[in-house]
Amino acid sequence: MKRILSFAAVALLTLGGWIGWNQFAKTRKHSVSFYAMDTPITLTAYGPRGKRALSLARARVKQIESELSVTDPRSDVGRLNAAGGAPVQVGEDSATLTAFALRMNALTDGAFDPTLYPALRAWGFTTEERRVPEAAELAELLKLAGAERVHLSGRTLRLDEGSMLDLGAVGKGFAGDEALAAMAAAGVESALVNLGGNVQTLGVRPDGQRWRIGIKSPDGGLIGVLRTAAEAVVTSGGYERFFTGPDGQIYWHILDPRTGAPARSGVISATAVGPEGRICDAMSTAYFVMGAEKTAAFWKEHGSPGFVLLAEDGELWISEDLNARFAVDPAYADAKVTVVRR
């Protein structure tokens, strides 16, 4: 009898230990940080397959960077921009993302525009030689912009002479989508990627709870915290890349396609939230350009992606689908909040 009890006790202890180890393995955190796509990136995965999944996800991000970089003359985009109007064969990623960018341009009535690189370069945001171009110079550069100047057939891309393509405003969102897809394919069920402020999640946290994602304020604090599950949270703000001109005015890198100058819509931070990073990446830029009223109208018509906007006057605009799971930071406790309903 004693032997039987001892065996049962050992079996129970072994089972308990196995359950404990299995739970530990499921919640074990793996993380890797590196620099790519002109921004610091951190990938985090949970579970026994996390380490290998991170290796695959990192390789995928680096591959996308090598294809899309606008400053690398060897990339698909770099070769296209230097082709002088000649057709260029590009990879599947570049063709797919170009087609997507053109669709987003049409959907937003031009608020998102992937052809503004000549104007962006004139401001010095890619050369680090900051300057304020004259209105006449910008007017000439805008003649080189426009989705109609981009010609895509299969994997053959051609630009009208003088035009340039820049997929940077959707590249990080696309890379986040692909990184999470690589981790999911490797067997990971819970993961988070942070691509320079673009935060995307796979599933929920290992404890079964929603992720808590902070939305950054232009002053370096938080606007609030959003509870998410399997979503992208992408913020565009004038505080990310900017300089002060000789006139004392602040100029940021998000340009208005109508003027070629920094967008002045009354919004200083625009966050888009939805299941796809590439869509949220494009729409956070479009929302910043549109301003609060046009963003509200767009969301009422299309229903996604959800948004959190901070206006210059301190007012917060939040789409109804996010309101119940968004907690305003105490720093904005006194802010006027407009909840946009359909």
For this entry, give a set of tags.
342 residues, alpha+beta, nine-stranded mixed sheet, three-stranded antiparallel sheet, 10 helices, 38% helix, disordered N terminus
Outline of the structure:
Helix content is 38%, strand content 25%.
Strands of the widest sheet, in order across it, are 1-2-6-7-10-13-14-15-17
Q: What level of helicity do the residues show?
A: 25-40%
Catalogue the unreliable spans.
Answer: 1-5, 9-13
Biggest sheet layout? 9 strands, mixed
Can you offer a commentary on this structure?
This protein is an alpha+beta fold and 342 residues long. Helix content is 38%, strand content 25%. The protein contains 10 helices and 17 strands. It has helices at residues 2-27, 50-68, 76-81, 92-107, 117-123, 135-142, 168-185, 277-290, 292-302, 320-323; strands spanning 29-36, 39-46, 88-89, 150-153, 156-159, 190-195, 198-202, 211-216, 222-228, 232-237, 242-244, 250-252, 267-274, 306-311, 316-319, 326-328, 337-340. The strands form 4 sheets. A 9-stranded mixed β-sheet has the order 1-2-6-7-10-13-14-15-17. A 3-stranded antiparallel β-sheet has the order 3-5-4. Strands 8-9-16 form a 3-stranded antiparallel β-sheet, with no helix packed on it. Helix 2 packs antiparallel against helix 7. The termini are far apart.
